[in-house]
TrEMBL record:
The keyword Hydrolase applies. Residues 16-320 form the DUF222 domain. This is HNH endonuclease. It comes from Mycobacterium deserti. Residues 433-448, 456-467 have a biased composition (Basic and acidic residues). Residues 468-480 have a biased composition (Pro residues). It comes from the Bacteria. Keywords: Endonuclease, Hydrolase, Nuclease.
């Protein structure tokens, strides 16, 4: 395949590595430019859940074929390179540093004051190429050393154990119990559902994040309690009067009948965890309640109301399995059933309903320029503000052909033009913007770093006082 010498192979490898890094830099520059163009017209949505970042992430995730969360992360990286670290961005586009280096630089300089970030950007850009061979810990040390020179309070602070709690497979820290292991997928699904149920028993004013509530739910789960104590501090907390009704966790598995009766070894599917081997499906079936999926007729009638019936909702969720937005794999259990043509202009019907996760549902509904079209077999065609179109098949129908059904072509009239009503008024709001959240976090962390610096200075002063020699004593006799 390669008619080259060993030396040329090594040379070509280096050239390709540099071109790969440069391509990443150019791509991030394009992401930053798109956000700069979209944000002015979407700035009014900054306090909305579906803000400019969410809209741009929804637009770039299909072309990158990545999740919404990764798209949001790339937007943050692109904005930072464009506005705070342009010299580092220039080095990336030239290929002399790679994305690992850039990601570390962004993470370690995020708390640096805007007044000095330009000088620090220039200093780091001049040295970054020499740091390419350093390990990640050594690279962090070098960057922190330069941050200290320009802005000592901007050095990142290691998160406090109590504030960084979450339920994941991670090493434990002092004062916190770590949970680790490798368990069966069906057991993991049951555990996740139970933790979610306990975490949901507090009121909406509980100050903890969802991850922190899930971590705290391990205590009630281990003690066999039905609720998680709310921390809102209110005497009339509504959660205090409510209790979970059941301690039973229910999981759902999709499988073919031939797998259950042993005539085939086609795998099943466990929502949120993926493919489940046939033997695991049959083992679960021995104690499970078996319910066939109700398949709609080719000429299925439309349903009268906005909310789909239990049978239609069940079919749509099993047909889709995940959010239908290109690049998004959020499970249907955490998604909404959306009318492709908005109700009441589009009916509640299997050919006009599909699953979108909450953020993509909001983006499609409230952010201008997005439109979708659903085919009778469930395929979805999404159009973005740039004019690009993406077609996506329903995941469940791809894995299980019985769910790939033509549910009928709908003759839908064109919807009326938008009225003068401000639809954004109905969009869910944030407590504060993403930028305000970021500034609050930076302020808190800089205060923590300032306290650490002050404590270190006090310790050095105390040590100096204890080690300095005593002042010389004058032993001459007093004068007469």
């Amino acid at each position: 395949m390669f008619e080259t010498s060993d030396s040329e192979l090594i040379t070509f490898m280096g050239e390709e590595a540099r071109e790969e890094a440069a391509a990443v830099g150019r791509r991030l520059a394009l992401v930053g430019e798109l956000y700069a163009r979209r944000h002015p017209e979407l700035e009014v949505l900054d306090l909305h859940c579906a803000d400019a970042v969410a809209a741009v992430a929804a637009e770039i995730s299909p072309v990158h074929n990545i999740s919404h969360a990764r798209a949001v992360s790339q937007i943050h990286t692109a904005i930072t390179l464009r506005h705070r670290l342009p010299r580092v961005a220039q080095e990336l586009r030239s290929g002399v540093i790679d994305y690992r280096m850039v990601a570390t630089i962004i993470a370690r300089t995020e708390n640096v004051d805007d007044v000095v970030i330009g000088e620090l950007d220039e200093a780091i850009a001049q040295h970054a190429m020499k740091w390419m061979k350093l390990s990640t810990p050594k690279l962090r040390d070098r960057i922190d050393q330069w941050v200290t020179k320009f802005d000592p309070a901007g050095v990142r602070v290691t998160p406090q154990v109590e504030q960084s709690r979450y339920l994941e497979v991670e090493p434990t820290q002092v004062g916190m119990a770590g949970v680790s292991g490798n368990i069966r997928a069906e057991d993991g699904a049951a555990l996740t559902q139970r933790l979610d149920a306990l975490a949901a028993t507090v009121c909406e004013k509980d100050p903890r994040t969802t991850s922190q509530r899930r971590a705290d739910a391990c205590g009630p789960l281990g003690r066999g309690e039905a609720t998680l104590a709310c921390r809102c501090g209110s005497d009339d907390c509504p959660a205090a009067a409510e209790r979970a009704a059941s301690a039973t966790a229910i999981i759902h598995v999709l499988a073919e009948q031939s797998t259950l009766d042993g005539s085939s070894d086609n795998p099943g599917y466990l929502p949120g965890f993926g493919i489940l081997p046939a033997e695991s499906v049959r083992a679960l079936a021995t104690t499970a309640t078996l319910t066939p999926v109700a398949l709609p007729a080719p000429d299925a009638a439309t349903e009268p109301g906005y909310r789909p019936s239990a049978g239609l909702a069940d079919f749509v969720r099993w047909r889709d399995l995940t959010c239908r937005w290109p690049g998004c794999d959020r499970p249907v259990m955490k998604s909404d059933i959306d009318h492709t043509r908005a109700w009441p202009y589009g009916p509640t019907h299997p050919s006009n309903t599909k699953c979108y996760c909450r953020i993509h549902h909001l983006v499609k509904t409230f952010c201008p320029g997005f439109d979708d079209y659903q085919l009778p077999n469930g395929d979805l065609v999404l159009s973005t503000p740039s004019g690009h179109s993406y077609r996506r098949e329903p995941h469940g129908a791809t894995l299980f052909p019985a769910l790939c059904r033509n549910t009928g072509t709908l003759d839908l009239p064109d919807p009326p033009p938008p009225s003068g009503t401000d639809r954004c008024a109905m969009s869910p709001k944030r407590r504060q913007t993403r930028e305000q959240d970021r500034r609050d976090r930076i302020t808190t962390e800089r205060q923590q770093r300032a306290q650490i610096i002050a404590e270190a200075q006090r310790e050095r002063a105390d040590l100096k006082r204890n080690t300095d020699p005593p002042p010389p004593q004058n032993n001459d006799p007093p004068p007469f």
